[in-house]
Design brief:
Number of helices: 18
Number of strands: 14
Shape: globular
Largest sheet: 6 strands, parallel
Structural class: alpha/beta
Distance between the termini: 63 Å
Helix content: 25-40%
Oligomer: single chain
Strand order of the largest sheet: 2-3-4-5-6-7
Length: 512
């Protein structure tokens, strides 16, 4: 461990201030509390840190007992990417469902309610919303995390989400700048490249970010993507042309710039996390996100010392590090002013309710999920309320952003509505015949997720529908493939409430 003294004490504190590390467990480890005392100003929470809302509130209180202005960040998009409800599935549909409804007031209210729940647990910084325009339907990592493929739609809902979230006193972090939607590679695994010309980027990818900036987003997250039209040499996270010249200069953004996770292979495999962090700060980033995978004290010390060494060697100007640290502190001051109970936007009203709360806000996620459904019939459909169906879930490999901890599908909700419902999970070339045999004589509900990206799913549905044309198909990803089945239900996302909304239609509890 490097010992720093005298003039470098401020330098060391600034180096710690710009880090946003994760940690293991559901209570704060001793090393993390020590680093907060030494200057660490932010922490990042992941699914592993959340067992219940009560436990999460106790954890954030533990952090604030050490540093009362700490930024507590979380990756809570709602929909498929949830940390608050990682073990049950989200109470809120994700961006694609909200885009399908296309009611900006609804998006604003969903984001506000999500922010209210975060704030109630002591979380004041959310790495959301995703403003990516999903231009490539085969995108393996964005998909339903995007509001859609139309830049104008994505822009108006990004702005509404930012406004709603921040009205609850939680800072929004609009991501992934300059836009991760037109990629065929997951940046968790390798470096994506977008070869679109600058004119396309201007009229497509940058449009939602301009809207987010106009709406006052407190933070923007960079993408680990190479965009040669903007910078042929460096990925966005490490590019001064993109972060300083474009985002700060041309777009006029003055808030916090946060990197995506530095241990993602797009950066770590090429530059290493220490070198990558130095280059990111030099390029104009203000906060270094790390901790999805690397979440120990050694990682924090390595990054701290790399930044200090870079300043000493002249590679990273001391003024740049100091400016980045001040931007982190500025955001902390904003969250302190707007926190519940401080007279900010979520202060209690005279009657004890949340100021501005709407009628039935506890159910706003389910309301949105129901409205997002797209139902297509191939002929008359009679709900199978008399007998319990067999749910065949055709399960793809989850991307790293979503994770494989969170349950999805319609089986649990159908079992509640139609007791006796059975289910199985199937994958691969023989998924169709195996599912058909497992179902026996029961009516089949086939659940897919991005059928258009997985040829084996298409083959499985071909098999089921050839043998059992009364099969119901529920698509819980991007509904890019043509609808088919006796009833086809597109939920535009795999959140728990999306599954419930679909199950209600299948069971006849709600009219399609």
């Amino acid at each position: 461990m490097t010992t720093l003294a005298g003039r470098t004490d401020t330098l060391t504190r600034d180096a710690l201030t710009v880090l946003q590390p994760g940690f293991p467990g559901t209570t704060a480890p001793d090393w993390l509390l020590r680093r907060l005392g030494e200057g660490l100003a932010s922490v990042g929470l992941f699914g592993r840190n959340v067992a219940s809302l009560e436990q999460l509130a106790a954890l954030t209180a533990q952090l604030r007992a050490e540093r009362d202005d700490v930024l507590v960040a979380i990756d809570e998009e709602g929909g498929d990417v949830t940390r608050l409800e990682v073990r049950t599935g989200s109470s809120f549909p994700g961006n694609h469902a909200l885009g399908a409804v296309d009611d900006v007031a609804l998006t604003r209210e969903v984001a506000r309610e999500l922010g209210r729940r975060l704030a109630a647990c002591g979380v004041n910084f959310n790495w959301a919303p995703a403003a990516d325009v999903n231009a490539d339907p085969a995108n393996p990592v964005i998909g339903v995390r995007s509001f859609g493929a139309d830049p104008a739609l994505a822009a108006r809902h990004t702005a509404a989400y930012v406004t709603g979230l921040q009205s609850a006193g939680v800072a929004a972090c609009t991501k992934h700048f300059p836009g991760h939607g037109d990629t065929a590679v997951d940046s968790h695994l390798a470096m994506p490249r977008i070869d679109a010309p600058a004119e396309v980027l201007e009229t497509r990818d940058l449009v939602p970010f301009r809207a987010a900036i106009a709406a006052g987003t407190r933070a923007v997250m960079s993408a680990h993507i190479l965009v040669p039209a903007l910078d042929p040499d460096r990925p966005a996270t490490l590019s001064r042309r993109i972060l300083t010249d474009l985002l700060r200069g041309e777009l006029g953004y003055d808030g916090l710039i946060v990197t995506d996770g530095m241990e993602m292979q797009a950066i770590a495999a090429v530059y290493g996390i220490e070198r990558g962090s130095v280059l990111a700060l030099a390029a104009g980033a203000d906060a270094i996100c790390v901790g999805g995978g690397l979440n120990d004290d050694g990682t924090v010390r390595r990054l701290r010392d790399a930044l200090v060494s870079a300043v000493r060697s002249g590679e990273l100007p001391e003024e740049r590090l100091a400016d980045a640290a001040e931007r982190v502190r500025r955001l902390a001051r904003w969250t302190a002013r707007t926190a519940p109970g401080t007279g900010g936007p979520t202060a209690p009203a005279a009657d004890g309710s949340a100021a501005g709360a709407s009628q039935g806000q506890d159910d706003i996620g389910l309301v949105a999920a129901r409205r997002a459904l797209t139902v297509t019939r191939s002929g008359p459909y009679e709900p199978g309320s008399a007998s319990a169906p067999y749910v065949a879930a055709f399960t793809p490999v989850a991307n790293i952003a979503v994770g494989d901890e969170t349950p999805w599908g319609v089986a649990a909700e159908l079992a509640r509505l139609l007791p006796g419902t059975e289910t199985g999970s199937f994958t691969g070339a023989d998924a169709g015949p195996v599912a058909l045999a497992a179902a026996g004589e029961r009516r089949i509900v086939a659940v897919v997720r991005d059928e258009h990206r997985h040829p084996w799913m298409t083959v499985a549905l071909d098999t089921l529908l050839a043998a059992r044309p009364d099969t119901i198909v529920v698509e819980m990803g991007i509904p890019e493939a043509p609808p088919r089945g006796a009833l086809h239900i597109a939920t535009h996302g795999a959140a728990r409430v999306c599954g419930r909304a679909a199950a209600e239609v299948v069971a006849g509890a709600r009219r399609p």
